[in-house]
Write a structure and sequence with these properties.
The complex is a heterodimer of chains A (619) and B (218).
Chain A (H helix, E strand, L loop, with lengths): L11 H38 L28 E2 L6 E2 L4 E5 L2 E4 H12 L2 H10 L9 H15 L15 H29 L5 H9 L9 H6 L20 H4 L4 H13 L44 E9 L4 E10 L13 E8 L8 E2 L10 E9 L2 H4 L3 E9 L5 E10 L14 E4 L17 E9 L3 H12 L4 H4 L2 E11 L12 E8 L5 E5 L13 E8 L1 H4 L3 E8 L8 E8 L13 H11 L5 E6 L7
Antiparallel strand pairs in A: 1-2, 3-4, 5-6, 5-12, 6-9, 7-8, 7-10, 10-11, 13-14, 13-20, 14-17, 15-16, 15-18, 18-19
Helix pairs in contact in A: 1-2, 1-4, 1-5
Chain B lengths: L7 E8 L6 H10 L12 E13 L5 E14 L6 H6 L6 E7 L3 H5 L1 H11 L6 E7 L11 H11 L3 E3 L8 H29 L12 H5 L3
Parallel strand pairs in B: 1-3, 1-4, 4-5, 5-6
Antiparallel strand pairs in B: 2-3
Bound molecules: guanosine-5'-triphosphate (GTP), magnesium ion and zinc ion (ZN) (2 copies).
């Protein structure tokens, strides 16, 4: 019924508006999923406490829930009509004067209503064919993302020519605007995180402020939030009800210990350094894909002089999200072997800052010439928005033997300033070759893509907490509520090292918060199958942490590619947020400290962070 | 407000013709304010509010209290968004079906909205409250209370005359709907548990026609 439903029928601005609503909804769902996960964990714990409930020999003699022995005449217990186990009088929950259930049955029923499972069950009766839990909002978002991907890929990639016809220009500018809206989508997600409680109207109110009289009352506008606590009825009689936690005899500490144990089961993030070769199993991708990795860079820079020019053109095909570099020719190159007047040139390009083999493209080697003609187009699949941070490094090399290579010169083009929409910049030009720019060490900077997250430190607002504590908790959770929570939404990653045929990954993210006492809280996202640019949008909640603890903690995030059976998961890259000054090699992100402080100093606000993923594994 | 410190996530949805006051009503409910401006809703939207729900014991004695997180979906009344808005019906647990007391046409359309609900909501007889809005505009009234009540009775759903402008019956209507949903929820659970186990596992059909019977299962 809703299968064909999508957002195509909407005008662009309308779609934007609806998407923002859908993303807001997604946050509501994320929070709820986390709540449900916790509920389920508590139930599991409760069940473990009553382990004897399955062993029949005790059934008639002891309470199935607490194992207290039952008498034959006095205190003989009663059979729960939910599970048919005999339980003592303490292990019952009275629903009304005529109906009671044992603690486990009660907890099961409680779960069913609190998780909303009752609703899904009901709905499944009417729509048995549909996904039981998926909401329309989630479905729409998914299909929108899929659709926007499909529609930017044309059936056949257009040939790379110098045509500057009007049609082409039109096409490009159109697909550009589409692409922009996909970008905006990502952006709007981020903005939404900040305006998380706003509804359509509030957004519009912001806009209309500029022009209309709506803004006459600024205060009113500020107060317009879609959520409010005003209705929380503070004064009313509240009878203490058995919460799951209360049913679990034992303290909160107990529960926490359980959490720790549970989390420990998650795989440890390996700490052994991994060899570079991991990324070298490449497949051909439009051009030669080198099996060697960055180490070939250590080649010969001791060239005496650099001469000559190189002719190439750069363009971006918006439809296919491809950067195309067409290397046409070189002239007046210096000889690779000056004495023998030998030169076997080839061109090699990197999309800096990525210096891994993934970023490397090479032309074929031309023999015995200093004026080689290449006519080769080297391609990168890359998001347009990514280009801004990239530089195209085009170098020319002499290939002497298998081992020896001589540097003949290079050109570095910063793509941030490149106007891809202007046809004139798409045509061929000659560029003067230059000597190696910068230190060779720079080349060894590891770049394994980017990880986008947003994070928020949640500190309970005083007033609300007090109300709740008095009313609901009876002091039981005081300890936990004094603490805060670190929320981190792992949005997605770009430019991950893809190596599988078909170029996709089954990626997931592990998060590990290391507290000052070296205690680690671990989290793991679900695996996203077959996505080269995964968008997990998964919420990590690091619970029960105080701001002062966090000030001395560090957070490690690692992206992994799930292995097909048997083999080990493949490490893709990692990033770290830490309060310490950067030390060591990979930790060299000076932003790290800054971002961490930003999160800690602005509680209850979403902070967007883009990490550069590093491949080093050591800490 | 984005923390998970609540017991239930309840999703309600407001529907009805364009301009009857769905958005304004929800805004009154969540923020207790009135917006006289008409800004038609694009597709869908939602607001949130957290409330404490008190269930009542069997003899009206004070029962339990729960923290409820309400997600209040607002739909566009305009025809051209219909495919989108009706799709969202399936995720809602209860409905605020609204018409405008000053518009006979919006009242006549209630029938159509009912059949849309029947087709798209999670079950055949979901919890609905019928709301005649803009009760404050008594001089422009086109629908009289008798007519509206008769219709509501025909469907077996509660009816309220509301005003987003004055706040009349706004909270009451939402609370009534929440109450219906919470009751249905408890019944669902009690019923399945009793039939799952005591009656040897065959879970009977859940029809909410005989609520009293489910109240005391033993
Ligand atoms: N006097 C009065 N005006 C109201 C009342 N409720 C809504 N209005 C006005 O009616 C107009 C339409 O209200 P909206 O809430 O935007 O209507 P809607 O049902 O959301 O319309 P769509 O989004 O197009 O489906 C606005 O100008 C409101 O101020 C009310 O109870 N009394
Ligand atoms: Mg509206
Ligand atoms: Zn017991
Ligand atoms: Zn039981």
């Amino acid at each position: 019924m809703t299968c064909e439903l999508n957002l195509n029928f909407l005008k662009e601005l309308e779609r934007e508006t609806v998407l923002q609503v859908l993303y807001r909804d997604q946050m509501v769902r994320k929070v709820d999923e986390e709540r449900i996960r916790k509920l389920k964990m508590q139930l599991q714990q409760l069940q473990w406490k009553g382990t004897n409930s399955v062993s029949h020999e005790y059934q008639e003699r002891s309470c199935a829930r607490c194992q207290k022995s039952l008498g034959l005449v006095m205190n003989r217990g009663a059979v729960c009509n939910g599970c048919s186990h005999r339980v003592c009088s303490e292990c019952r929950v009275c629903l009304n004067p005529y109906l009671w259930k044992c603690t486990i049955c009660y907890a099961h029923g409680d779960m069913k209503v609190k998780t909303g499972e009752w609703f899904f069950e009901e709905r499944a009766k009417k729509f048995p064919a549909e996904d039981r839990h998926e909401t329309v909002g989630a479905k729409l978002l998914k299909s929108y993302q899929k659709l926007s991907k499909i529609s930017v890929v044309p059936p056949t990639p257009p040939p790379f020519t110098e045509t500057t016809g009007r049609n082409t220009a039109m096409e490009i500018s159109q697909s550009k605007s589409f692409h922009k809206s996909v970008e905006n989508l990502f952006l709007s997600l981020a903005t939404n995180m900040k305006k998380i409680s706003k509804s359509q109207n509030d957004m519009r109110a912001d806009k209309s402020l500029l022009t209309t009289d709506y803004g006459q009352d600024m205060e009113r506008r500020k107060e317009r939030r879609s959520q409010s606590d005003t209705a929380i009825d503070a004064a009313n009689r509240i009878k203490n009800i058995p919460t799951l936690q209360q049913l679990i005899s034992g303290t909160w500490d107990d529960n926490e210990a359980f959490t720790k144990r549970y989390c420990k089961q998650a795989e440890d993030i390996p700490t052994s350094p991994m060899s570079d070769t991991v990324f070298c199993g490449g497949k051909k991708h439009g051009s030669l894909y080198s099996i060697n990795s960055t180490c070939t860079e250590a080649g010969n820079f001791d060239t005496t002089n650099v001469t000559g020019e190189i002719e190439f053109a750069i363009r971006y095909v918006f439809k296919t999200c491809t950067l195309e570099v067409c290397i046409k020719a070189c002239k007046n190159l210096t000889y690779g072997e000056e004495k023998e007047k030998k030169c076997n040139p080839y061109a090699k390009i990197y999309l800096l800052p990525d210096k891994s083999s993934r970023s490397k493209r090479k032309t074929a080697v031309r023999k015995n010439t200093v004026d080689p003609a290449f006519h080769e187009t080297l391609k990168y699949k890359i998001e347009y928005s990514q280009l801004e941070t990239r530089q195209l490094q085009i170098s020319v090399w002499h290939s002497e033997t298998l081992k020896r290579r001589v540097f003949l010169g290079e050109v570095v083009v910063p793509l941030s300033s490149w106007n891809f929409e202007d046809n004139s910049t798409q045509s061929f030009s000659w560029y003067q070759l230059k000597v190696k720019s910068g230190k060779p060490e720079d080349n060894l900077v590891q770049y394994n893509g980017e990880l986008l997250v947003c994070a928020k430190l949640i500190l309970p607002s005083q007033s609300k907490k007090c109300q709740y504590e008095e009313q609901m908790r009876g002091g039981r959770e005081d300890q936990a509520s004094a603490d805060g929570q670190l929320h981190l939404v792992v949005l997605g990653a770009k430019n991950l090292p893809v190596m599988r045929c078909g170029g996709t990954l089954n990626s997931f993210v592990k998060g590990c918060l290391t507290l000052p006492d070296q205690h680690k809280i671990r989290q793991k996202s679900p695996v996203l199958k077959k996505e080269a640019c995964p968008q997990w949008k998964h919420l990590f909640v690091f619970d029960g942490v105080t701001p002062s603890q966090l000030r001395q903690s560090c957070l490690d995030l690692a992206v992994w590619d799930q292995a097909s059976f048997g083999s080990n998961d493949r490490f893709l890259g990692r990033a770290r947020l830490s309060p310490k000054e950067p030390s060591g090699t990979w930790d060299s992100d000076p932003q790290s400290k800054c971002q961490w402080q930003k999160i800690l100093s602005s509680p209850n606000t979403w902070i967007d962070i883009t990490f550069t993923l590093h491949s080093d594994m050591d800490t | 407000m984005t923390d998970g410190d609540y017991d239930y996530l309840i999703k309600l949805l407001a529907l009805g013709d364009s301009g009857v006051g769905k958005t304004t009503f929800l805004y009154r409910y969540t923020d207790n304010k009135f917006n006289p401006k008409f800004i038609t809703t694009v597709g869908i939207d939602f607001r949130e509010k957290r409330v404490i729900y008190h269930s009542r014991g069997p003899n009206g004695s004070p029962g339990k209290a729960f923290k409820v997180h309400l997600q209040l979906w607002d739909t566009a009344g305009q025809e051209r968004f219909r495919s989108l808005t009706t799709a969202f019906f399936r995720d809602a647990m209860g409905f605020l079906l609204m018409f405008d007391l000053t518009s006979q046409q919006s009242f006549l359309n209630v029938r159509n909205w009912m059949s849309q609900l029947q087709a798209n909501a999670y079950c055949e007889n979901p919890d609905i409250v019928l709301l005649g809005n803009k009760a404050d505009l008594s001089d422009q009234r086109e629908v009289n209370e008798r007519q509206a009540r008769d219709l509501a009775d025909k469907y077996g759903i509660p009816y309220f005359e509301t005003s987003a402008a004055t706040g009349q019956n706004v909270d009451k209507a939402v609370e009534m709907l929440l109450d219906l949903i919470m009751k249905r929820m408890e019944q669902c659970v009690d019923k399945t548990q009793v039939s799952d186990t005591a009656n040897g596992g065959s879970s009977g059909k859940l029809d909410s026609a005989k609520p009293e019977e489910k109240k005391c299962a033993c």
